[in-house]
Amino acid sequence: MRIINEPTAAALAYGLQKKPNCVEKRNVFVFDLGGGTLDVSLLTIKGGTYQVKATAGDTHLGGEDFDNRMVSYLAKEFKKKHKEDMNGNSKALRRLRNECEKAKRILSYNNEATIDIDALFQGIDFHSTMTRARFEKLNDDLFEKCMDTVKRCFDDARVDKNHVHDIVLVGGSSRIPKVQKLLQSFFPGKELCKSINPDEAVAYGAAVQAYMINNGQGGNDSKTLKNLVLMDVTPLSLGTSIKGDLMSVLIPRNTPIPAKKKGTYFTDSDDQPTVCVDVYEGERLRASENNMLGLFSFDVPPAPRGFPIYICFDVNEDGILSVSAEEKLTGKKQEITINNGTGRFSAKEVAKMIEEAEMLKDEDEKYKERVKAKNALDECVYKVKKAIKDGNFFSKVSAMDKQRIMAAIREAREMVNNDGVEQGETYQYKKCLMELQSVTNEIMGKINSDYEEGDNED
Fold this sequence. Notes:
This protein has helices at residues 6-18, 63-82, 90-106, 132-138, 140-157, 177-186, 201-213, 223-226, 347-359, 361-390, 399-416, 426-457; strands at 26-33, 38-46, 49-58, 112-121, 124-131, 166-170, 192-193, 229-231, 238-242, 246-251, 259-266, 274-281, 291-299, 308-315, 321-326, 333-338. By secondary structure, it is an alpha+beta fold. It has 3 domains: 1-232, ATPase, nucleotide binding domain (Nucleotidyltransferase, domain 5), CATH 3.30.420; 238-359, Substrate Binding Domain Of DNAk, Chain A, domain 1; 362-457, Substrate Binding Domain Of Dnak, Chain:A, Domain 2 (Up-down Bundle). The strands form 4 sheets. Strands 7-6-1-2-3-8 form a 6-stranded mixed sheet. Strands 10-9-12-13 form a 4-stranded antiparallel sheet, with no helix packed on it. A 4-stranded antiparallel sheet has the order 11-14-15-16, with no helix packed on it. Helix 2 packs across helix 3 and helix 10 (361-390) runs parallel beside helix 12. The longest helix is centred in the last third of the chain and has 32 residues, at 426-457.
């Protein structure tokens, strides 16, 4: 199984129907505004090869949202005219919503639409007129959100919008004049392609994808279809968790596949017997808030803290992910394979995860800073304790200095060992780190000074 998002499917339909013999490279942007979601994709088409550059979406933006704005406005108008509030009556609201949907469609080719509903609520007939200007004003912020999604796609793709050759409109709400006007302004001098059926393009493209997955089996001997290649991107970032539940991304979202990336990680304690390698997809900085795809335990030989483990993420052209862990001392290697359908999200769920990550970005950044400060303190404690242990430290310092440094270590250790990062704020970890470093540097300075004086006496 392979997941294909709607605008990518529409791009296949567009390429096959409108650019079947395309030799020169063309950048195609697909804008798919349906009833419940907005999905966009940027692809490069050359010959029979379709390479996805980036995708973006908004799961809370579509034709239904435009309808709801009209429903809310007209319900208030009804209450103002007739002193009756229909908001608690589902039947009345459903009838009003149906008429609003019809009005929205009429406003795509007329400047105004009439709404007439007999006995809408409490036996009262309702009549109103919705102008295109009023409709656009009611949904102005939603139209801007459409363009924010478009801009995000180009930011992810790192492609200049002026390098786009074709803009393809898909989905019933792409017919809305205001939407087309905003897109026309965003792509000055470019013609919007409205010639493919916006309601059928996605199904057509998905059928082509199914044909490709089935290796061309199904009774169609078309040379064009047999030579078709779709090069997709990773819909979500792929990575593993590191100390403090942080997500360490190896393959970022919208990376063209196939893709392969290696990372070096280190054990957290002396003589650590095993390393847990967990595999996540998602955009949250906190690993546990992402979607876990799999995990495995990897045995490591006894070694001091900081023993290196090499982890590799490899995604093939079918979206199958292989994750391996290796340590060089004994040459041991272990691997896990995650199929495309194993615990993976639909295109709509992917868009929702990206939205949530964006909304919680500030909160996640604060969490990341806390974890980094805590880890820095923990690392300092480890190094100081190691220096004391390895260097016959206590034979060179006074009893008072010994007491001071042990107290500083104890305080830092207690803060590090608090359950949950939230127990300490970033500034507390940083303050404790500075105090430990200050005491350590002062005492180490004394030792070095005494050592240099001894050399001079000789």
